[in-house]
Design a protein that fits this description.
The chain has five helices and five strands, in the order H-E-H-E-H-H-E-H-E-E. By secondary structure, it is an alpha/beta fold. It has a five-stranded mixed beta sheet. It is globular, with a radius of gyration of 17 Å.
Length: about 140
């Protein structure tokens, strides 16, 4: 009886995780006024992990994160960088401790990301595909 209950719990958890990941469909975006029209997954990863601070055209890249613990943030980093929330936290702890940088500014939701992107064509962010409107340009999907 206990094994059957455990298997049912595990199966339910796996279905739940799979369903949530597919439903969110996180995309990397810039302002529709940005000169940037396309970036690779690797380029987006490098910007958000603080390894590069400029777009390929030489313009400053200003990454905007969603708040720690948000589903969009967790899914974005897993899809684009391959890092879990714990790995990401360790990554930034090392960078900050060694004085090599600071994590991106974090905002509470997709509408705030769209607002900041509209105000700064050098900004790059991510949001749920369902939150995409004419104010932003989708760069790629993972």
């Amino acid at each position: 009886m206990k094994i059957r209950s455990l298997l049912a719990t595990v199966a339910s958890a796996l279905l739940s995780v799979g369903g949530n990941a597919a439903a969110a469909d996180i995309v990397a975006v810039v302002s529709s006024a940005s000169a940037i029209t396309e970036l690779s997954k690797a380029q987006i990863s490098e910007i958000f992990l603080g390894r590069v601070s400029r777009f390929p055209n030489g313009a400053l890249a200003v990454p905007i994160d969603q708040e720690e613990g948000s589903q969009a943030r967790d899914e974005f980093y897993l899809a684009y960088t391959g890092k879990s929330p714990a790995q990401l936290k360790a990554h930034w702890a090392k960078i900050v401790f060694t004085g090599r940088g600071q994590p991106p500014k974090a905002v509470p939701n997709s509408s705030e990301i769209r607002r900041l992107l509209a105000a700064n064509p050098q900004a790059i962010g991510y949001l749920e595909r369902s939150a995409v409107d004419s104010s932003v340009r989708v760069l790629i999907q993972p």
